[in-house]
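Incident log, structure service

09:12 report received: a user says their structure output differs between two submissions of the same chain.
09:20 pulled the input from the user's history:
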Amino acid sequence: MTEQKKENPDFRGSLWERNYNGETYFSGILNGEDVVIWKNKKPKNDKSPHYLVWKSKPKEEKQETSESKQEKMQQIDNILNNQNQVSNEPPFNDDDIPF
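09:34 re-ran on a clean worker, output below:
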């Protein structure tokens, strides 16, 4: 069936419905290019498009993005762990209490 569609001169591609963080988008191939299509959340007027088409990033770039997210999460964890380290000193003493 796919071969029949490819032979049809009017056929442009295929889209799949996906979900990410509760939002629906489409991914697929249009005119031989990998694309993602998101709903336009900020239309400026009635003539604004309802959906926006973006060229999909290669998997290598996506992997770098996830690696950089992991690095950022590690940095946050390090900061939080340093703040939560137990100190031998109490957080306040009797002089700090005003009554």
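09:41 both user submissions now match this output. Likely a transient worker issue. Closing.
09:42 reviewer note: The chain has one domain: 2-80. Residues 2-80 form one domain.
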